[in-house]
Amino acid sequence: MLRAYWFVVMNLALTVLVAGCSKSEGNLPDLGPVSGTVTMDGKPLAKAAVAFESADGHGAYGVTDESGRYELVFAGQNKGAVVGPNTVRITTALDGPTPADYKEPIPAKYNESSQLNVTVQAGPNTHDFALEP
Predict the structure, then answer these.
(1) Is the pTM value of this prediction over 0.85?
(2) What would be the CATH architecture of the domain defined by 29-95+102-131?
(3) Residues 51, 72 contacting (CB under 8 angstroms)
């Protein structure tokens, strides 16, 4: 009986903790659904990490599939990116830790020195990126 009591108490505490740590719908900034495709040298770019960063530092993230298509997610299961101007960074999505001798195949002008800027609208957004090597 005592074991069942502690099991219920611990599950309740865990539920409260998880609910308190997640962003509620009321605390989210205005989001606009964002999807699109990424190509490199005219070919779909698979396994590319696409990140949007708003002017106030909020980020949204997606990874391209085999056809170069991505869809952004913000804070858990919330789809989209913050409405307004965003800087876009595109890098290779690696499985596991980055090797010490790794050289990013996507040019720096698309990631660490990104020159990609878009404006996310309140409704659905399609942002395609045609990268050049």
Answers:
(1) no
(2) Sandwich (2.60)
(3) no
